[in-house]
Write a structure and sequence with these properties.
single chain, 449 residues, FAD/NAD(P)-binding domain, Flavocytochrome C3, Chain A, domain 1, 2 domains, seven-stranded mixed sheet, six-stranded mixed sheet, elongated, binds flavin-adenine dinucleotide
């Protein structure tokens, strides 16, 4: 078997792995190898909206938005209700404005604050995205191109990691430490030995067995993530004593278009969009839940679906999003002249529709020409995973950490807390890129434990 020796071996070249490799390789004396299952199949960061949550960025300051890592952390904990994870969430929030400024100012990727991106539980605008809202694909292509320009990094594609290499930890002989991994390329095994191994292979949402084991309450949702999220790291981390945490929690989405699988802009409820079930019952306050929490409400409706209706003004306010462009291109959004025409198209009696469309206190009435789509619930990524400390080390039940190993992104516990309803928008990429940044920054200074 071919053997390779590096300083840092990274399993997974998505949001967390790429950021960990970028930050580590700022130290030119370190050799970094990233082994990626398949960029052809893609990572969730590729198909994401690419919205980066960060509190206290230069862009926010220049837009006159007062925010800070502390405020960001407080918002997340208020959504998740999970005080136990506060130190980890705080550490992720601390680094978020640093890597957002770095991506924009140092690397030169076009970013702006999404003042048009209101979200449940977000006290000020803090999602950052490119002005054209192209989604995560261009961002990841840009970061991978930057990685490719580094002489001390090898990115090995179509080379899935199969297992971790371990040995008894000299400092704690009854426990194992990690000394690299075995990957596979073109049917050949490669042994990659490393001082530090980073596991960044995301969650298990595309593994039906693991979803049944950990998150059976979600029913049979539409799956909106990539094929590579098969939870490979579960089998690697379990024997090392990983404590599975909040495994039922997912990044769910309650604005997935039925029969098309595209999503509509999560800002629509704030632009006045109305939701009703097949009987015309306005079963929820549209602004009371984020899109992840809304998924459970839609799952509980007849046919696990709901009709969303909005007018021309709401359309104008929300059209600048890749989600709306995708949904329009897919033919998922239809138009109606008025409520009577809508009733004919969707089969909900006129009286029930008119009642559902009646403006509620504090909301703008939807009027004139209407747009509508049937929505269902979906799962985008899992949010549960191995418990990690603020340095992204795996914490065993006795409080000890696994030597030689760092874990981040969807392979580790996220920031949603015990339930999908606690997911804060932008939390997925923040947990991934934040962990990558924390890991890389420490490794670049020579810390190895
Ligand atoms: C449709 C959609 C929209 C989203 N929008 C947003 C958003 O706007 N903002 C936000 O914050 N979050 C968003 N998310 C969530 C976010 O994309 C994920 O939380 C984030 O990408 C997780 O990062 P990661 O590095 O853990 O995983 P990924 O980005 O998925 O990267 C994991 C990588 O590991 C590789 N891999 C898997 N197994 C192996 C193996 N055995 N060996 C080697 N490599 C392996 C995969 O191929 C992949 O490249 C969205 C998710 C989806 C699906």
């Amino acid at each position: 078997m071919e053997t390779v020796d590096v300083d840092v071996a990274v399993a997974g070249g998505g949001a967390c792995g790429v950021m960990a490799a970028l930050r580590t390789s700022e130290n030119p004396d370190l050799v970094v190898a990233v082994f990626e299952k398949s960029t052809r199949e893609g990572c969730n960061a590729d198909v994401s909206s690419g919205s980066l949550a960060a509190g206290g960025t230069r862009l926010q300051r220049e837009a006159g938005i007062e925010d800070s890592p502390q405020q960001h952390c407080d918002d997340i904990i208020a959504n998740s209700g999970d005080e136990m994870l506060r130190p980890l969430v705080r550490a992720l929030c601390e680094v978020a404005p640093r890597y957002v400024d770095w991506i924009g100012d140092t690397l030169g990727y076009p970013l702006e604050v999404g003042v048009d991106m209101p979200r449940k539980g977000m006290s000020v605008p803090r999602l950052h995205a490119d002005p054209e809202r192209r989604g995560g694909g261009p961002l990841m292509a840009f970061l991978r191109a930057e990685l490719a320009s580094r002489d001390n990094v090898a990115f090995v594609d179509e080379a899935p990691v199969r297992r971790l290499l371990t040995e008894p930890d000299p400092e704690h002989p009854r426990q194992q430490r990690v000394i690299g991994f075995v990957a596979e390329q073109n049917g050949e095994a490669i042994e990659v030995r490393a001082t530090t191994t980073v596991v960044a292979t995301d969650g298990f949402a595309n593994n039906p067995d693991l979803m049944r084991r950990f998150a059976s309450g979600l029913g049979t949702p539409f799956y909106g993530g990539v094929s590579t999220s098969t939870g490979d790291s579960i089998a690697w981390l379990e024997p090392l004593g990983a404590q599975w945490t909040h495994m039922e929690a997912c990044l769910r989405h309650g604005q997935v278009t039925l029969g098309h699988g595209t999503r509509v802009n999560p800002a629509l409820p704030w632009a006045g969009a109305v939701l009703m079930n097949t009987a015309g019952d306005r079963f929820v306050d549209e602004q009371a839940f984020g899109y992840s929490g809304l998924a459970g409400r839609i799952q509980a409706q007849p046919g696990e679906r709901a009709l969303m209706v909005w007018d021309e003004q709401a359309m104008a306010e929300t059209i600048t999003s890749e989600m709306m462009r995708d949904s329009l291109a897919a033919g998922a959004i239809r138009e109606a002249e008025d409520v009577a025409d809508l009733s004919r198209q969707v089969g909900i009696p006129y009286e029930a529709l008119a009642e559902a469309m009646r403006p509620v206190a504090g909301r703008r009435p939807q009027q004139g020409r209407l747009h509508h789509t049937w929505l269902t619930h979906g799962v985008l990524t899992t949010q549960g995973g191995a418990l990690i400390d603020p340095r992204c080390r795996v914490v065993r039940i006795d409080g000890s950490t696994v030597s030689g190993l760092r874990v981040g992104g969807g392979s580790a516990v996220g920031t949603a807390g015990p339930d999908s309803q606690g997911y804060s928008s932008g939390g997925g990429l923040m947990a991934a890129m934040g962990a990558g940044w924390i890991i890389g920054e420490e490794l670049a200074t020579g810390v190895t434990s």
